[in-house]
UniProtKB/TrEMBL annotation:
It comes from the Bacteria. The keyword Nuclease does not apply. Keywords: Lipopolysaccharide biosynthesis, Nucleotidyltransferase, Transferase. It holds the Pfam family CTP_transf_3. The keyword rRNA-binding does not apply. SUPFAM superfamilies: Nucleotide-diphospho-sugar transferases (SSF53448). Its EC number is 2.7.7.38. GO terms for molecular function: 3-deoxy-manno-octulosonate cytidylyltransferase activity. This is 3-deoxy-manno-octulosonate cytidylyltransferase. It comes from Chryseobacterium kwangjuense.
Length: 240
């Protein structure tokens, strides 16, 4: 299999505009993410897909590869445009605002497709257990519930599952926005109309579920820093 990584990068983020061009140590957020993905040595190629000339120039200036795209509602739609003429089998989507992703979770996602002999899985992604009440209730944390085989049943910004039976302990999982797609499934995704659940929740992988595709979730204990707010940026700078 030919495996590539694509990092969707939008300059005008709604909650924190220009966050990808903020400095983390001596590099910007987007350059830090790009360099970290390249250094895993897991991929035949790594690209940044962006509609911003500022981000495009930043990556090229630092010796990276970038692809200009049109404007899109979701990162997956942006990646689909970027890869349609690239020869590959599996596309790993690494979020531009997740600069500290580690090697092992990426290897786990790739392994999902190596073991999928019948090619039934359209998408693989990551989840991590939540234990703090504040984190479970935070709508910026997308929660996911899965079946006994690890396939996604639903994603939500609300608290799922609802803990009605308090005598029974239930686990909560946060969805980490790192995706591994089969290329043909990604291209199919980009042609599908958004349905009400995706529009309501603003969670793009719900589109796969609404059209009956299979999403495999891998549990990880990796704790990164997704940069959605200025406060998140300060946390990341402390890690640097």
């Amino acid at each position: 299999m030919k495996i590539i990584a694509v990092i969707p990068a939008r300059y005008e983020a709604s909650r924190f505009p220009a966050k990808l061009m903020q400095m983390l140590g001596e590099k910007t957020v987007i350059t830090t993410t790009y360099k970290n993905v390249v250094e895993t040595e897991l991929f035949d190629e790594v690209f940044v897909a962006t509609d911003s000339e500022i981000i495009f120039d930043e990556i090229v200036r630092n010796g990276g590869k970038s692809v200009m795209t049109g404007q899109h509602e979701t990162g997956s739609d942006r990646i689909a445009e970027a890869v349609q003429n690239i020869d590959c089998d599996i596309v790993i989507n690494v979020q531009g605002d997740e600069p500290f992703l580690k090697l092992e979770p990426l290897k786990q996602l790739i392994q999902v497709f190596k073991e999928d002999d019948n090619q039934e899985i359209s998408l693989a992604s990551l989840k991590i257990k939540l234990t703090e009440k504040e984190e479970i209730e935070n709508p910026n944390n997308v929660k996911v519930i899965t079946d006994n085989n690890g396939f996604a049943l639903y994603f939500s910004r609300s608290v799922i599952p609802f803990h009605r039976e308090i005598s029974y302990e239930v686990a909560y999982y946060k969805h980490i926005g790192v995706y591994a797609f089969r290329k043909h499934a990604l291209l199919q995704f980009s042609k599908l109309e958004m349905k009400p659940l995706e529009i309501s929740e603003k969670i793009e992988c719900i589109r796969y579920l609404e059209y009956g595709m299979k999403i495999k979730l891998i549990e990880t204990n990796f704790i990164g820093v997704g940069i959605d707010t200025p406060e998140d940026l300060e946390k990341a700078r402390k890690l640097i």
